[in-house]
Specification:
It is a single chain. By secondary structure, this protein is of the alpha/beta class. It is built from 11 helices and 9 strands. 45% of the residues lie in helices and 18% in strands. The chain has an 8-stranded mixed beta barrel with strand order 1-2-4-5-6-7-8-9, surrounded by 5 helices. Strand 1 and strand 2 form a beta hairpin. Helix 1 packs parallel to helix 3 and helix 3 runs parallel beside helix 5. Bound molecules: ligand C2E and magnesium ion (MG) (3 copies). One magnesium ion (MG) binds next to strand 6. It comes from Evansella cellulosilytica (strain ATCC 21833 / DSM 2522 / FERM P-1141 / JCM 9156 / N-4) (Bacillus cellulosilyticus). This is Diguanylate cyclase/phosphodiesterase with PAS/PAC sensor(S).
Amino acid sequence: DNYKHYIPEMNEDSHNIYFLEKDMRLALEKEEFYLEYQPKIDVKTKKVIGCEALIRWTHPKRGIVSPAQFIPIAEESDLICDIGNWVIKKVCKQLKKWHLEGINTVPVSINISAQHLLKTSLLDTIFTALKANHVSPSLLELEITETSLIQPNQSVFSTIRSLKKLGVKLSLDDFGVGYSSLTHIRKFPLDTLKIDKSFISKVPTEKDDAVIISSIIEMAHGLGLTILAEGVETEEQLLFLEEKNCDHIQGFLFSKPISNDHFKQALISGELIIRG
Ligand code: C2E
Ligand code: MG
Ligand code: MG
Ligand code: MG
């Protein structure tokens, strides 16, 4: 009953949504989606310590459609769970492939939408995908946003607890925007906080953002959490984050999201800076 029926009177927006939704279902069947990987860098060693899988879509007519455009539409129906399941399987297969190729693999994180986290089947999907590909759970990290934690029900708690017990890592994405509440950090067994890029883009010039970032870093460390800054684009931002003892960074300064082959090369060569 999540299917929407096309009505000619639809306005342009809903028209667009209708077609994108329809096309996304086809895209899953026709393998039009693919993943790119954005490296995560350790601030001290400047080494690649992980990466984030980000979905990409080459639409047969529209060309490249950004996830910022189609993920919110997918989130309006169960489609987001199908897409999420596809990503989970794809990442586990990729980890297996890198392992078989003798690559010293790093953990990969996956973005999980709030609705998907509500599904009791999520745990089983992840468990099965890891097992089928002989992948260690410690190589998988889930990025969730605070939306998932606003009104957590028992099933979300129990899924998260089981995943943690299994050894899967958990991070809070886009921290600081939206429905931020420190309660989330206390209640959930998180490993990492990812500071939203909207804060990073303002440092070091904006004093308030600088204060907020250094306080978040200090708090995270006090709570035993790892802190990652998203959207690092300049040397000045890197210097600021180094000075504030931020653990990890992600951003165009080091690398934009890249193809699996490109990322593999980066892992092999140990190339520290892969800007481009
Ligand atoms: P996100 O999870 O917060 O991912 C970070 C976004 O910031 C990515 O955009 C990335 O390309 C971009 N980014 C990274 N470094 C920089 C930088 O230095 N400067 C700037 N301006 N941007 C940077 P992308 O790939 O377009 O993804 C947008 C959002 O779409 C993601 O935000 C995430 O919420 C969602 N998304 C992407 N892939 C998936 C997926 O597989 N599943 C789900 N559920 N959501 C996804
Ligand atoms: Mg993310
Ligand atoms: Mg983010
Ligand atoms: Mg986001």
